[in-house]
């Protein structure tokens, strides 16, 4: 009756072959680019751009209000040529970078403490929730009053924007770590510090990344707000400049740059996320299989 | 005497779940804690493991009173409870300390024994239920604990995998000779694996019967003596009438 050891090993080897075959298959299917799908999703944007361009050229659209896409591109080109493009983009990226770093740093520290300790959570969380319900743009006048019109007030505003989503996700991530996994660590006699390092941190990493990405999105929103109010450079300043000099092509160029930068920074985070969380059993990870 | 449980009781918010449970396990003995659901089997096991310290009574492991988790104890839960961010190999190494190379050699040897050779770089999400539980068994055994606690280790697996893993467990027991306490609600499993079956019954649960089985392992599942014992156990659990009427 007993199933022999040899039987077992045979069946395991069989499993191994099957699973390896499945893996190889999935690896190839990623490489196959579904050309039809890409064409389909490009169809509408291309049509829109073409009719916009045609409308402008045939003077159907008032080009003083909505210049043609080519005009926007030419504006970008000349800005790149005279160097102002890099200056403004650089200023915005600089503010974004430091705002993001500071907001994330403070959020991670505070979030881990409130996530770990029920007492601290009871003490600190209501206050943070109250602050969260203030529309963050309402801080702008105060920050300018306190910190001046320079970089510090802008970076602070961005940091405030980044802080809340990261904080909420770090706290939530830590609190939702599977009790059963923690018990495994306890069964091996791990100390609290070891439990945090070896179980709590890796287990709450997915939630942390979710927070980072929504924090980044809010950060981009706040950088616009910060630069709309009193800046002498930056993409937000370009928006104001375009408005004041009645040059919609400058506004559109700036909007386009915001879109591109937002997309690039988010895909960097997404890459990092996929690398760090490849072990996750998620729908997205299994798509190719 | 390797493990002694003396007058252990446990209440949860005033309600007694386990009442005065006592038994002893000799070194290398396989003990089965058998009972219907809700009779406190797992509660007793958690008390022995040291994960739950809110009990009354005394538990002695290797002659020492134990009230906390103990390096001499290994635990296998009903679910594999693997760290999803670690590979099979790193999961097995989880409880090991010391030199990296040494850890790896030990883990690889156990992975070979549980039939997972070649799977060391897989992540838990890529494993079937049986493979995941094999990994968990390897993780518990790699520290070479003198006592192994198993909380319904095979109840979440399909019937075939269950039979395979029961045999594997006996093989591992042959090579490491740990004392084992298995919580189970499967009478066949208890009869197949255990040297002694302790039947818990009632609410709060208490020891109803302590049956010793002196029979060489591996045993045949069709053994008439075991079949007779099964009848006795069913009767003891007052399940026979119900079983007959099905």
Characterize this entry briefly.
Chain A has 289 residues and is an all-alpha fold. Chain A contains twelve helices and no strands. With 246 residues, chain B is α/β, with parallel strands linked by helices.
From the spread of the alpha carbons, the general shape of chain B counts as globular
> What share of residues of chain B is helical?
25-40%
User: What is the radius of gyration of chain B?
Assistant: 18 Å
Number of strands of chain A: 0
Known CATH architecture of the domain at 91-276 in chain A: Orthogonal Bundle
Can you give a write-up of this model?
The complex is a heterodimer of chains A (289) and B (246). By secondary structure, chain A is mainly alpha-helical. Chain A has a domain at 91-276: Orthogonal Bundle (MetI-like fold), CATH 1.10.3720. Chain A is 81% helix and 0% strand. Chain A contains 12 helices and no strands. Chain A has helices at residues 5-31, 35-57, 69-82, 84-116, 118-132, 140-147, 151-175, 179-187, 192-228, 235-244, 248-276, 283-286. The longest helix of chain A is centred in the last third of the chain and has 37 residues, at 192-228. By secondary structure, chain B is α/β, with parallel strands linked by helices. Chain B folds into 2 domains: 1-72 and 148-229, Rossmann fold; 82-144, ABC transporter ATPase like fold. Chain B has helices at residues 41-49, 88-93, 100-113, 129-141, 159-176, 187-193, 224-236, 240-245, and strands at residues 3-12, 15-25, 30-34, 56-61, 64-65, 73-76, 147-151, 179-184, 196-201, 206-212. In chain B, the strands form 2 sheets. Chain B has a 6-stranded mixed beta sheet with strand order 6-7-8-3-9-10, sandwiched between helices. In chain B, strand 1 (3-12) and strand 2 form a beta hairpin. In chain B, helix 3 crosses helix 4 (129-141). The longest helix of chain B is centred in the last third of the chain and has 18 residues, at 159-176. The termini of chain B are far apart. At the A-B interface, helix 1, helix 8 and helix 9 of A face helix 5 of B.
């Amino acid at each position: 009756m007993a199933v022999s050891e040899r039987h077992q090993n045979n069946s395991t080897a069989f499993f191994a072959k099957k699973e390896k075959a499945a893996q190889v298959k999935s690896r190839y299917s990623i490489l196959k680019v579904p050309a039809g799908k890409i064409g389909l999703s490009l169809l509408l944007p291309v049509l829109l751009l073409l009719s916009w361009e045609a409308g402008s050229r045939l003077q159907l659209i008032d080009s003083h209000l909505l210049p043609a896409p080519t005009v926007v591109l030419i504006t970008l080109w000349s800005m790149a040529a005279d160097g102002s493009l890099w200056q403004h983009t650089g200023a915005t990226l600089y503010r974004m970078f430091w705002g993001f770093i500071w907001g994330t740093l403070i959020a991670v520290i505070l979030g881990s403490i409130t996530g770990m300790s029920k007492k601290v959570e009871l003490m600190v969380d209501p206050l943070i929730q109250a602050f969260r319900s203030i529309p963050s743009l309402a801080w702008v006048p105060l920050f300018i009053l306190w910190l001046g019109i320079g970089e510090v007030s802008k970076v602070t505003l961005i940091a405030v924007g980044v802080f809340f989503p990261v904080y909420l996700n770090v706290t939530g991530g830590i609190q939702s770590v599977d009790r059963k996994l923690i018990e495994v660590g306890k069964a091996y006699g791990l100390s609290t510090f070891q439990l945090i390092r070896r179980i709590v941190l890796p287990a709450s990493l997915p939630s942390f990344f979710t927070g980072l990405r929504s924090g980044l999105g809010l950060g981009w929103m706040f950088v616009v707000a910060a630069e709309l109010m009193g800046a002498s450079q930056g993409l937000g300043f370009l928006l104001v400049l375009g408005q004041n000099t009645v040059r919609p092509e400058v506004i559109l160029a700036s909007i386009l740059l915001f879109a591109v930068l937002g997309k690039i920074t988010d895909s960097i985070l997404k890459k990092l996320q996929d690398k760090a969380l490849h072990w996750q059993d998620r729908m997205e990870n299994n798509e190719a299989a | 005497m390797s493990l002694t449980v003396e007058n252990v009781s446990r209440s949860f918010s005033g309600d007694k779940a386990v009442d005065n449970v006592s038994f002893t396990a000799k070194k290398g003995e396989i003990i089965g804690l058998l009972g219907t659901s809700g009779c406190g089997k797992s509660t007793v096991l958690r008390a022995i493991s040291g994960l739950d310290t809110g009990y009354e009574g005394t538990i002695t492991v290797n002659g020492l009173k134990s009230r906390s988790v103990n390096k001499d104890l290994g635990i296998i839960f009903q679910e594999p409870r693997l760290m999803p961010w670690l590979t099979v190999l790193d999961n097995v190494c989880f409880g090991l300390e010391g030199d990296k190379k040494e850890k790896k050699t030990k883990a690889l040897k156990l992975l070979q024994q549980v039939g997972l050779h070649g799977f060391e770089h897989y992540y838990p999400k890529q494993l079937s239920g049986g493979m995941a539980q094999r990994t968990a068994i390897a993780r518990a055994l790699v520290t070479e604990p003198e006592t192994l606690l198993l909380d319904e280790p095979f109840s979440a697996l399909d019937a075939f995998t269950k039979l395979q893993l029961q045999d594997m467990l006996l093989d591992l027991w042959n090579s490491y000779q740990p004392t084992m306490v298995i919580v189970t609600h499967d009478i066949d499993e208890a009869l197949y694996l255990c040297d002694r079956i302790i039947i818990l019954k009632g609410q709060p649960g208490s020891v109803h019967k302590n049956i010793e089985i002196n029979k060489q392992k591996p045993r045949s599942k069709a053994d008439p003596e075991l079949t007779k014992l099964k009848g006795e156990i069913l009767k003891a659990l007052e399940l026979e009438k119900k079983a007959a009427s099905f």
